[in-house]
Amino acid sequence: MNSSKLLDKAVDQFASLPGVGRKTALKFVLHLLKKDAGEISHFIQSIEALKKNIKECHVCHNIADSDTCEICADPRRDRTRICVVENIKDILSIEATSQYNGLYHVLGGIISPMDGIGPADLTIASLLARTEQEPVQEIIFALSATIEGDTTAYYIFKKLKNKENLIISTIAKGISIGNNLEYTDELTLGRSIVNRVRFSYNG
């Protein structure tokens, strides 16, 4: 308990963010209290605008300011390759390596029966459609090295394995088994993208 209920409420809101404890939340709130009214207003407006105006790219399901994200709209990107990732954070991780210049596809999760997530809950159908509508020559799986990640990759692989002239690859196993992409350092992730291998399943 703090001396102010307003302070407590603000701390509660910041502490609800992932990875933010109450001590860190209190630091954030006290820092904001030192800002002038104009800066606080700008901060609030930025968050409100984000929630109100942010969109989902109709092509790859990345976050975007318009109907198409900047990556999909960039004519300099290699449109023959699509890197399949679980979530938006994985795109940020891969882009930070500067080792990949193709396009992406965000699944919005991975197949996990324990969590009630099946293929229909992901954007797999639109990925399959892209392989028919776009000049795609390679699908690269950049999914977490977990049972769920492997299951998801295998499901998509079965849907695409008979498609002629389509290479299906996966990032090299420089990433420890069981690790999520967002926790992998940029050097390891970058090398895994560059040294990707043909996808195979031994389950």
Shape: elongated
Task: Say how many strands there are.
Answer: 7
What percent of residues adopt helix (DSSP H or I)?
Answer: 40-55%
Strand neighbour order, sheet with most strands? 4-3-5-6-7
Alpha-carbon Rg, integer: 20 Å
Domain count: 2
Structural class: alpha/beta
Q: Mean of the pLDDT scores? A: 89
Write down the secondary-structure element order.
Answer: HHHEEHEHEHEHEHE
Q: Give the helix tally.
A: 8
Query: What's the end-to-end separation, in Å?
Result: 53 Å
The CATH topology label of the largest domain is Dna Topoisomerase Vi A Subunit, Chain: A, domain 2
State the low-pLDDT regions, or none. Answer: none
Quickly name the level 1 CATH class of the largest domain.
Alpha Beta
- Examine the secondary-structure arrangement and name the CATH architecture of the largest domain: 3-Layer(aba) Sandwich
In percent, how much strand structure appears in the residues? 5-15%
What can be said about the biggest beta sheet?
5 strands, mixed
